[in-house]
């Protein structure tokens, strides 16, 4: 039986897998308070982009940058810089929806990767998350790293 982490490592690009791994450890790196107001979004060229919900916290995090990078390195993550950007959490009903048609190929990819997950509830959550992702981004966007991040 394969571990979900092994499946994900093979299924996603290195950048996405690193981002998922950092997200999993984020509260241990920065603490509960900062973790509740921030979200690691992507790692590109060893730079971690972090969405921050408050401009004051964003400014404070700039002063903590070296400390956060050091903690990430202690956890085994090869990050050389952090970039912070404002990312306001808005209620879903007020959020602008970006929708695109999900292709048959994308649905087949989601089904192929989700069917190896034994737990039905976890499998359906994974499938739903991936379909939501492909409702916004195409495979080409994913491969070419065009995911709304500067």
Provide structural commentary.
The protein has 150 residues and is α+β, with helices and mostly antiparallel strands. It is built from seven helices and three strands. The protein has helices at residues 4-11, 14-30, 32-37, 55-74, 104-114, 120-134, 139-143; strands at residues 38-44, 47-52, 81-86. A three-stranded mixed β-sheet has the order 1-2-3.
Strand order of the largest sheet: 1-2-3
Unreliably modeled segments: 90-96
User: What general form does the structure show?
Assistant: globular
Question: What is the CA–CA distance across the termini?
Answer: 39 Å
Roughly what percent helix?
40-55%
**Helix count, DSSP H or I runs of 4 or more residues:** 7
| Helix/sheet category | alpha+beta
DSSP strand tally: 3
Proportion of residues in extended strands: 5-15%
The main β sheet shows up as: 3 strands, mixed
Rg, Cα atoms, Å: 17 Å
Series of secondary-structure elements, N-terminal to C-terminal: HHHEEHEHHH
| Overall average residue pLDDT | 80
């Amino acid at each position: 039986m394969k571990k979900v982490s092994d499946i994900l490592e093979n299924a996603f690009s290195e950048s996405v897998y690193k981002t998922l791994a950092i997200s999993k450890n984020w509260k241990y790196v920065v603490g509960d308070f900062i973790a509740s107001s921030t979200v690691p979004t992507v790692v590109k060229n060893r730079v971690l982009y972090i969405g921050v919900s408050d401009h004051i916290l964003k400014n404070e995090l700039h002063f903590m940058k070296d400390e956060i990078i050091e903690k990430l390195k202690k956890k085994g993550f090869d990050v050389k810089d952090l970039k912070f950007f404002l990312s306001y959490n808005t209620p879903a009903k007020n959020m602008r929806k970006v929708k695109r048609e999900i292709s048959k190929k994308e649905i087949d990819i989601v089904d192929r990767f989700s069917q190896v997950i034994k737990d039905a509830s976890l499998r359906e959550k994974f499938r739903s998350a991936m379909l939501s992702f492909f409702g916004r981004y195409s495979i080409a966007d994913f491969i070419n790293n065009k995911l709304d991040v500067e």
